[in-house]
Amino acid sequence: DQQVKQNSPSLSVQEGRISILNCDYTNSMFDYFLWYKKYPAEGPTFLISISSIKDKNEDGRFTVFLNKSAKHLSLHIVPSQPGDSAVYFCAASFGNQFYFGTGTSLTVIP
Amino acid sequence: DAGVIQSPRHEVTEMGQEVTLRCKPISGHNSLFWYRQTMMRGLELLIYFNNNVPIDDSGMPEDRFSAKMPNASFSTLKIQPSEPRDSAVYFCASSPIRTGEEQYFGPGTRLTVT
Fold this sequence. Notes:
The complex is a heterodimer. Chain A is an all-beta fold. Chain A is built from no helices and eleven strands. Chain A has strands spanning 4-5, 10-14, 19-25, 32-38, 45-51, 56-59, 62-67, 72-77, 86-94, 97-100, 104-109. In chain A, strands 2, 4, 5, 9, 10 and 11 form a six-stranded mixed sheet that branches. In chain A, strands 1-3-8-7-6 form a five-stranded antiparallel sheet, with no helix packed on it. The radius of gyration of chain A is 13 Å and the shape is globular. Chain A starts with a strand and ends with a strand. Chain B is mostly beta strands. In chain B, 0% of the residues lie in helices and 54% in strands. Chain B has no helices and eleven strands. The A-B interface holds A 2, 6, 32, 34, 36, 41-46, 49, 89, 91, 93-103 and B 4, 33, 35, 39-45, 48, 55-56, 91, 93, 99-108.
């Protein structure tokens, strides 16, 4: 059973526009959420995180939104750049439990 | 810092053979994680060590899989005997703290079992 779900396997966005990547989770015990970015032939790298006590965290072009009532997490990238093309994984954790989604492949078209 | 080091980067083996994947975490990190990436299930946590002690191995798929961390700078993931369905990319990650906050991933080992 997939406790963290990314229902869109791929997304294409024009350069300069906003990219919105979505993530849903099922376990209300999760208290920390993260986004990782992965280029081909490399390991994932940490991008941004948010604690369950917040509903928004911003870091430059990247903003993560958390809607606890809907058990929904989203990552906004504004403006999108070709270098943002990668696979994005959302992850959720509590205690010793740590779950990743299946990833969304983002393509930013120049 | 060299980051998390994994070896080999690629491994091709025949069904039934033993496979050993290796990981060197970032110096000073207390936690080490082994993940498997597949298209269907994304990144699955296999096992998690804290201070060299296995804390949660509930993600290890079968008894054919075993992991050890004999010291703070080295860990192995062994599959014996290997099967074609074990083909995947295996990642090792380390973290300076105990719980699942930011983790630093190695480049992964692509395993192909024929």
